[in-house]
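Progress against Task 2.4 (sequence-to-structure conversion) is shown through the following example record, which the project officer requested during the mid-term review.
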Amino acid sequence: MHVPEGKVVQITLVNSDGALHDITVPDFGAKSDQLSGKGAATTIVFRANKAGTFEYFCSLPGHKAAGMVGKLIVGDVKQETSTAADISQDPHAVGTDVGARAPKNLSINLTTHEVEGRLSDGSTYRYWTFDNKVPGPFLRIRLGDTVNVNLSNAPDSVNIHSIDFHAVTGPGGGAAVTQVAPGQTKSFTFKALNPGLYVYHCATPMVAHHISNGMYGMILVEPAGGLPKVDREFYVMQGELYTAQKHGSKGLQEFSLDKLLDEKPEHLTFNGSMDALTKTFRMEAKTGETVRIFFGVGGPNLTSSFHVIGEVFDRVYNLASLTSPPLTNVQTTLVPPGGATMVEFKVDHPGKYILVDHALSRLEKGLVGFLYVTGDDKTEAFHSETPMDPNSGH
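Structure tokens generated for the chain above:
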């Protein structure tokens, strides 16, 4: 919707589904009454007295997230090309499985960067990262490997950074010997003694600040012989951003220490940004395939109730233990901050399946991802003559 600056704008909302709706353009102080009943209508009138790009949306909880949102362009607004980096991590970037190889010596090289990255359409944040991505790279090694870790801090960084591997047996998981000043590199060597899926993160004081700014990732220590084969693997991590500005604000979002200490994040993310797993990257599978998700919580504070709407986890490797028998037929699994899990499930029916933390208020702050399943349902798992409602939230 494009209108000249200074003009009076009239927007009429017609209810086409009979549910309760309204329309608001908060930047111009315009908000309609709520209306219900199929065919009912309401109108807002306001003067577009400033140029720019603004949102209009339904203000009822969950409706904006379900798609009831649009853009109002006022005046001759040039489409600006964002210079913010895309820091969101590709969920397909799961590395190469170890297969049947023997233990070996290998090196892991990581660099910490501080970069203004895209948080959502119209907003950015000053992230601290491993290799310019949030979460950092998915690292994949084998039980018995001897690993040399080289951690560099970019010369243009402002802060000291470090790394703590939960998979490491040694002081600070490596953090005690990797407090790295800008422009320097520090190293250590460890032997992978325990199979499992483990979180790593920065452990420089204030540790929670470094983690919340994006400094976390996961390392998989595969058992001898590797993991059983599946058709699809995805890397997903949940994180929290504590900003002075309210969720939905435009521009550069600034860190708030008070909100971090109160454990009240304004933004919650899968893979670093608000729409990493809804717009930036597309996760797909075909009916009949088995999906494996490596899921972790960077945190630093909130426990996740990980759930895929419309699916049941066939196997859950609880707390990411790969040597304990997996739980079976699980609906939702708890993952603590600094913890992980591995879930597997066969997809039987085509459609869009939504990844959430089942503390569902968090969806309104950005915590959502999509898995698209294509193909035919040969198991007759689901059937309905009623068409899917795009406003259902599912």
